[in-house]
Structures are given as structure tokens and as C-alpha cells.
Amino acid sequence: SPFVRLATLADLANGNSQALDPTAYIYVNPDITLYAHRLPVDEWVGMKSAAYQHPSGIGLADTSVFDREGPLGRI
């Protein structure tokens, strides 16, 4: 379904924005928030991610989600 395709990206966004070597560092994704102002129009959904890290070990993955018609929301 369109919602399932969108929700799948929410799980992928964390790894897509990873900035550290996964063979040297492990991390847990304790919280995911998916905001969508509409559902995708077809099966093609894209995302663009950015990662922000703090020396204390706290980080944030920010992902914009879009389809053929434009923005869908953020993860």
C-alpha cells in the first residue's frame, strides 16, 4: 500500500544518513517520527537524508521524502 511504502523509508532513513563506520560503531535507533501530509501517488518514493552528530554521542537523522509530484513529508 502507499502508506507501507512510506513507512518502509522511515526505517531505512537512519542507515541512509549514517556518518560513522558501521564496522567500528554500533548504535540503536530509539525513536522514529514520520510526518506525511499526503500519501505517495505511485510505487516510486525517494528520500534525501542528512546526519548531524555531536561529540557527546547524540545524533540526528533528518530525511525529506518525495515522489513524482513533490514533497510528501519528513522522517
Structural write-up:
By secondary structure, this protein is an alpha+beta fold. 20% of the residues lie in helices and 32% in strands. Strands 1-4-3-2 form a 4-stranded antiparallel β-sheet, with helices on one face. Strand 3 and strand 4 form a beta hairpin. The two termini are 18 Å apart.
Tell me the span between the first and last alpha carbons.
18 Å
Radius of gyration: 13 Å
> What summary fits the major beta sheet?
4 strands, antiparallel
Structural class: alpha+beta
Give the helix tally. 1
In summary, what is this structure?
This protein is an alpha+beta fold.
Q: Which structural traits does this protein have?
A:
single chain, 75 residues, alpha+beta, 4-stranded antiparallel sheet, 20% helix
Write the layout of secondary structure elements.
Layout: H1 2-16, E1 35-36, E2 46-53, E3 59-67, E4 70-74
Antiparallel strand pairs: 1-4, 2-3, 3-4
